[in-house]
Structures are given as structure tokens and as C-alpha cells.
């Protein structure tokens, strides 16, 4: 069996004396692993770095086998991604998020989103906003999407400023006022067709929002924790914008 696709390198681990197992996110075939013979050579090591875009050809006798990759470089951005903390942590954090998805399960929109975010990881405000949207997309693909377009209580689409921790749906300011202390904040930049720029406070609210639902629906049922790289990215982005430390929210009961 054989196929070829564009891919972004997520991770590499040693295999034997000269080979490596490469984990990539492909455009059409989702997250996929394969062995690269000679992957530890001086020629291949710079290519097989997280964040690089490559062209991969996968071969195996049977579909369920690990198989082998032949890898050709397309865009080697890994060197630049080492220049800032948001970029270093961001690549690792997004790779960890993609590992929540089943291997070989196609998610072409997540591949496209990953490709876009990799070009903005040096811009803390843009990187933070895009990262939060990426987390929301992963939640949606896992079957735990949030409904942030209208108020769960009234159906109103204006003045949405809370998210119910029970339903994962937006709540308007008026409807949520009696339970405001138990609601999660909905940052304005996540509003439908919003033109609000994401500042440090809004990003902190966004990070708390996605962390709450990732922990509740994805990590806790699997006995896992969010990757340390995510916290590194969050703190780096907020620090660059002069914002406060982002503390994780306590479990809400509303």
C-alpha cells in the first residue's frame, strides 16, 4: 500500500541506531506515524523537526502496519520557531492537542488551522486567539463542541458574555446575571463575526474557558492532564502582553 500527502511534523522518537519514528499531521489522513530509515542522519535531522512542513510518501504491506515514510522538505520553519517562548511551547501544545484525536482520522480543517497558526506564533495576541480557536475546534471534533452563538436561556444573539459550565452554551449578560459568579467568562473576540481584538484579559478568559472543557470532557475521563507545554504557552503569551498569570478555574457547578 502507498499514498502521498502534505504533512506537518509533530514529533520524532529514536528507533534503532539510525532510524526514527516520525509523527505527522497530514492534510487528508490525519495524524499518522511512520518509520524513516536514516532519520538520524545530518541530512534528515534538520528536516524532521516539529513545525516543519514536509511531503510524505507512506508505504506498507498492510494498512494496519506502521509502515515507512519517505520525507521531502517543503517549508523548514523549525529554526524560526525556536526564537520565542510562544512558538516553542505553541508547537508542542498543539501537537499534544492533536494526540487526543484518533490516529489516522482525517481532520483537514485542523491541518489548515495548524499551518496558519505556525505562521503567527511570534505574535502573542494573534497566537493566543488562534490557539484558543484551535482548542475549540479540537473539542468540536471530539464531540464536545461549545455553542457560543446564542443565549441558551433566551435565544438572544447580542450581549453574550458568559458560558454555562453545565451546557457549554453561551448566556447573555441579563440572563446570566443571577449566577455570574458561577459562570465562565466568554471573551468578546469569540463572538460571531466579532471585530474585537484579543487583549491579555480576554485571552486569559479564553484560556480558562477551553481548559475547563478540555479537562472535564477529554482529560479527566482518560485519566490525563493537559500538557505542560500548554501552560508554558499560556504564560508566555500573557507575559508578552503584560497580562496577569492565568490560574486554572475551579470546578463550576452552575
TrEMBL record:
It holds the Pfam family RecO_N. InterPro entries: ARFGAP/RecO (IPR037278), DNA_rep/recomb_RecO_N (IPR022572), NA-bd_OB-fold (IPR012340), RecO (IPR003717), RecO_C (IPR042242). This is DNA repair protein RecO. Keywords: DNA damage, DNA recombination, DNA repair. Belongs to the RecO family. It comes from Shinella curvata. Residues 1-72 form the DNA replication/recombination mediator RecO N-terminal domain. Involved in DNA repair and RecF pathway recombination. It comes from the Bacteria.
